[in-house]
Amino acid sequence: MSDQNREHKNKKDAQLEKDRVEDKGKKLTTNQGLKMAEDEFSLKAGERGPTLMEDFHFREKMTHFDHERIPERIVHARGFAAHGEFELYKSMEKYTKADFLTDTSKKTPTFVRFSTVAGNRGSAETVRDARGFATKFYTEEGNYDLVGNNIPVFFIQDAIKFPDLVHALKPEPHNEMPQAASAHDTFWDFIANNQESAHMVMWAMSDRAIPRSFRMMEGFGVHTFRLVNAQDESFFVKFHWKPVLGTHSVVWDEAQKINGKDPDFHRGDLWNSIEEGDYPEYELGIQVIPEEDEFKFDFDVLDPTKLWPEEDVPVEIIGKMTLNRNVDNVFAETEQVAFHPGHVVPGIDFTNDPLLQGRLFSYTDTQLIRLGGPNFHELPINRPVCPFHNNQRDGYGRHTINKGPVSYHKNSLWDNTPETASKEEGGYEHYHEKVEGRKVRARSESFKDHFSQATLFWNSMSEPEKQHIINAFSFELGKVESESVRKQVVDMFANVSMDLAKGFADNIGLEAPSNGGSDVTKSSPALSQENTVKSPKTRKVAVIVGEGFKGNALNDIFNTFKSEGVAAEIVSNKQGKLKGEDGTEVAIDHTFQTADPVLFDAVYIAGGDLNNKSFKQSAVYYASEAFKHFKPIGGSFEGTQLLKENDFTDHKGVVVGDDASTFASDFVEAIAAHRHWSRELV
Ligand code: HDE
C-alpha cells in the first residue's frame, strides 16, 4: 500500500514518508535511473559464450547483492520492532524539565525494538533469555532512548566485565554451540565465578525469560538514572514499562517446541496484533528516590544488580505507549535503528552506576562498525524530528548537504553560528554533581551483597514459579558437562535458598552443601506473575471442528469470543470449508499439519464428526499438549465425549458444556487465567 495517500500518524511517520519508495507498477531501472530492456540474461559474447565485462547492469546488480549484509549486533542480534506513540497522563515537572514528560498535550512518536540477547539474527525466538526492550522517543528536544530489558537487574556490576559475560554466554568458540542458549559450560562457569550474577540468574531461570509475547512483558531501564527539574533539583529514578495485558509466560517444554514449529513466534505475534488493530500498550512508570535518601536503603542505589522493591518505592504510572504501526522495511528500520543510553534530553541525566557509565561508550562505538561510519544518525529511522545543526562533516554515506563555507566554531563569518543554546533556551547542561575521589580500579563495599535480593526474588515466587525455577536450573545444568562447574553452581545458589539448591542438585546427581541458606525473609509480591493482570484479550484459541458440527451453538460461542477479544481459529484435517448440520459453513484457518497446539493459548474441541481415526488422534494430541502446558481446554457436544474418553475432564481449566452461553463465559474466564497450575500439583 502506498503511504502517500494515508494520513500520517505523527511527525516521525511524516518525516519517514520522504524516504519511502513505491516500486510496484514501475519500470525497472539501474541505480542510475536507466530503464533496462532485459533483466534475466547477462550480456554474453554469443548465446553460449562468456559474460562480458561491459555488462554494467550485471555488475551493479551483483555488487549490490554481494554487499547486502551488515554485521549483526554483537548482542541482541535477533529483534523485531514497531512504531508507536507515547502519551503523558500527568506532568512530571516536579521531577524533570524534559518536555515530553511535562507537556501532556503532546504525543511523542516512538520506535521500539524487542530482542533476544544471545542468539544470532536467524535464531529462534522462544529461547530462555532476557529480552531487550529498547525505545526511541522522537521528542521535540531530540531523541531520547530508553534502552532496557525485560529483567530489572543485570548479571554484572561493572561494564568492563561485559565482554567476558558475553563471550561466556555466546556459543562456545571451538565448536560454535549451542545457539541462543545459556545451557552450556562456559556460561555457568562464568556465573559460578562471578557471583554478582546471582540475582539476574534467578530471573533468567524464572518464567520471565520465556515470555508468551513481546506484548506481555515488562520493560525496565535497569540502571538508576537521574531526573532534573527546572529548579536544578535532582532525583534518582528507575523506569518501568507495564504491559496493559499483564506479564505472562509460556512453559519450557512449550517454548522449545515453538522454536521448531514457529521460530518467528514472537515477531509474528507482534506483527499480527498490530495489523489486526490490537495495538500493544505499555504504561510508563517511574520509581523516584530523592537525592537526600540515597543511603537510606539496604542496597546501593547505584548497583545494577539491585531492584527497588515496589512495595518500598511505589511505581508511579505516568503515561502510556501504544504500538500502532508495523515497519515498512525490516532492514531499513529495525536493523538500522541505533539505540544509545547516552541519547538524552534536558531533564534526564546519568548516575555513577558503573555499568551505565560503560554503556555510554559502547553503543556509539558498536554503531560505527555495524552501520559503517559516523553518519548513522542520518538514516531515516535514526533522524530526530527536530532540526539538528553542528560543524560535524563528511564521512562515509553522508546525506546532508551542508551549505556555505563555515564548518567550525568559533567563527565570525556567521556570527558564531550554529550557536550553543543557554539552559533557558533548552541547551543540555550536565547535572552539576559533586564528585571527588582517588583513581582506583575497585568496587565499593556497598556493592558486595550478591545474594539478599536473589533470595527476595525466590521468596516472592508462587509455588509453581519456584518449581519452574528448579526445573530450569536442572535443565541448564543438566547440559553442563563439567561436574566441577555444576557443583560450584549448586554451592553458589545454596546461598540463595537451600530449597532451591536441594531441588536442582538432586536432579543433576549432586548434593547440596549441608549448611547454607539465607536469613532473608522479605518478599515482594509485585515480582510474582501470579499477581499480574489477567485478561482474555487477544488470546488465540484453536477450535477443532469436524464436519456436521452444531452451527448455531458455534456461532453463539464465536460471538462471545469476539466480544471478549478472544481470537478463534479453526483447525481441521484439511483446508477449505466445513459444513454444519444446519448448513452453516465455516472456513478452516489451519490444518493439523500447518498448526500446532503450542501456537495457541487454548484448545476447544467444538464437535462435529471426529470419528475419522487420524482426525481423532490429532484432536487428542491437541488436548494432551494443551493439558501438559496447563492451558485451558474446552469441549462441547462430540468434543466433550472425546475429552471424557481420554480423561481430560475433571481437571482445573477444563470446561465442557453444550449450553453455548454458559460454556462460552466459563471458557473465557479459564482463558483469562492464562494457565492452570494446580494441575501440576495434583
Ligand atoms: Fe546493551 N548493548 N550493553 N544492555 N543492549 C547493545 O548495542 C552493552 C546492557 C540492550 O534493539 C549493543 O547497538 C554493554 C544492559 C538492548 O538495537 C552494545 C553493557 C541493558 C540492546 C551493547 C550492556 C542492555 C543492547 C549491541 C554492559 C538493559 C539492543 C548492539 C555495560 C538495561 C538495542 C548495539 C537494539 C545492545 C553494549 C548491558 C540493553 C554492544 C557494554 C544492562 C535492549 O553496544
TrEMBL record:
Transmembrane segments: none annotated. GO terms for cellular component: cytosol. The active site is at residues 76, 149. It comes from the Bacteria. Belongs to the catalase family. HPII subfamily. It catalyses: 2 H2O2 = O2 + 2 H2O. Decomposes hydrogen peroxide into water and oxygen; serves to protect cells from the toxic effects of hydrogen peroxide. CDD domains: catalase_clade_2, GATase1_catalase. Residues 1-26 have a biased composition (Basic and acidic residues). Pfam families: Catalase, Catalase-rel, Catalase_C. PROSITE patterns: CATALASE_1, CATALASE_2, CATALASE_3. GO terms for molecular function: catalase activity; heme binding; metal ion binding. Heme binds at residues 73, 113, 162, 359, 363, 370. GO terms for biological process: hydrogen peroxide catabolic process; response to oxidative stress. Its EC number is 1.11.1.6. This is Catalase. InterPro entries: Catalase, Catalase_AS, Catalase_clade2, Catalase_clade2_helical, Catalase_core, Catalase_haem_BS, Catalase_immune_responsive, Catalase_large_C. Residues 29-417 form the Catalase core domain. There is a cross-link at residues 340-363 (3'-histidyl-3-tyrosine (His-Tyr)). Residues 1-33, 513-532 are annotated as: Disordered. Residues 515-532 have a biased composition (Polar residues). Keywords: Heme, Hydrogen peroxide, Iron, Metal-binding, Oxidoreductase, Peroxidase. Its cofactor is heme.
